[in-house]
Amino acid sequence: MSDHGLTGGVSVDLPVLTVMVAFSTIALYNVLELNVIIFATFKRRKGLYFWSFIVATWGIVPHTVGFIFKFFDVTSVWWAPLMLVSPGWFAMVSGQSLVLYSRLHLVVRSGERIRWVLYLIIFNAIVVGIPDMILAFLTNRPGAPASIVNAFSIFDKTQVTIYFVQESIISALYIYETVRLLGPGQGIAQNPYRKLLRHLILINILVLVFDATLLGTEYSGNFEIQTTYKPAIYSVKLKIEFSVLNRLVSIVKNKEFASLSNPSHNTNSLPLHDFTNTAHYTTAHNGSMGDSIKDDEQPRVMTTELVSGPTDWNDQAMRGGRIGETRDAEREIRVSESQVQLAAEYQRH
Question: Are 41 and 346 in contact (CB under 8 A)?
């Protein structure tokens, strides 16, 4: 059909049909795998990160199945597929943004910036998401006027663009703040947490690439491809999120973290909450970190790293003229705080 499934079913050749079926199959398979991973990974099933993961994952199924019903005329009730597509789309898209938002506080120290990201997500969900669903119903009803169909076609491209910009802002903010944490870092390149931060940057760049390809399918005019490709991409992005989670958990458990947190290396050690200046913000967003970690398992760091380090190094550097080394040392301290914060946040999973 000339509208590529915008107003009803589709009649496509075999190559396009194969692509549509392949994308739908990938999306549904990834949902099954994600559910297994979610309930096997999360030991404490609560908090924004967990529930946004659940909502985003489960939203993929009705979105995918609804478009299968719509494109292949499985039912003669015109509104039935849309009753699946609309809530599925809303949960999948907004849920994905909340997944990105819920881990943003791990690297962003500005509470104001994080609040504005949340405001952006809520605003777009109401101002962009709801009108798009209404137009979809008006477009697919029998005898819909051409003006409504054209309006939906334009608005659908607009909403895809807006959500692309929204996720780009979140990912770009994450990359920017992570790069600030990393700094030049000549002397600590092998630190496992620095490797983790680099990994997070690459993950966010990959997410931006996926979103760009989705935007390209939307503007190519192939509505049937775009709507089957989207849940596949969103399911892949959720699986990518678990690569971040698994990396964090493995670092918490590996011997590098054990050597960092072992009080025997320094008798002047303190629990994480005694020095981390972002602990109160983490608590406000995801529950008490102290409650999630047993007392005897709370990460500990050497006070000489976080308290006396900058002063001692600064005195030595000024005497020796090595101001550059002082700056590197102070940067390492800031990175160490955020690294341990990252590890502690995900230890509860």
Answer: no
Q: What is the pTM of this model?
A: 0.72
Nearest-CA neighbor of 140 among 78, 189, 183, 96? Answer: 78
> Whole-number mean pLDDT of the chain?
74
Q: How far is the C-alpha of 5 from the C-alpha of 11, rounded, in Å?
A: 8
Q: CA torsion sign, 75 to 229 to 57 to 162? A: negative
Location of structure tokens 């609804």: 66
Q: Are residues 141 and 285 in the same domain?
A: no
Please report which confidence band the pLDDT of residue 309 belongs to, taking 50, 70 and 90 as the band edges. Answer: very low
Same domain, 211 and 128: yes
Distance CA 108, CA 95 (A): 20
- Determine the Cα–Cα distance for residues 221 and 244; give it in Å rounded to an integer: 34
The pLDDT value given to residue 298: 39
CATH, residue 76: 1.20.1070
Domain assignment present for residue 3? The answer is no
Are residues 150 and 19 located together in one domain of the fold? Answer: yes
65: helix, strand or coil: helix
In angstroms, the CA 131 to CA 142 distance is 19
pLDDT band at residue 243 using 50, 70 and 90 as cut-offs: confident
Neighbouring residues of 248: CB distance < 8 A, sequence distance ≥ 6: 196, 342, 343, 345, 346
Q: Are 211 and 167 in contact (CB under 8 A)?
A: yes
Q: Is residue 107 part of a domain?
A: yes
- Quote the tokens at residue 309: 């380090």
CA distances to 2, 113, 141 from 234, in Å: 27, 25, 28
User: In terms of residue numbers, what domain contains 68?
Assistant: 14-253
166 lies in a domain? yes
Tokens of 104: 């943003």
Q: Are 109 and 278 in contact (CB under 8 A)?
A: yes
pLDDT of 250: 62
Regarding whether 121 and 29 lie in a shared domain, the answer is yes
**Helix, strand or coil for residue 300?**
strand
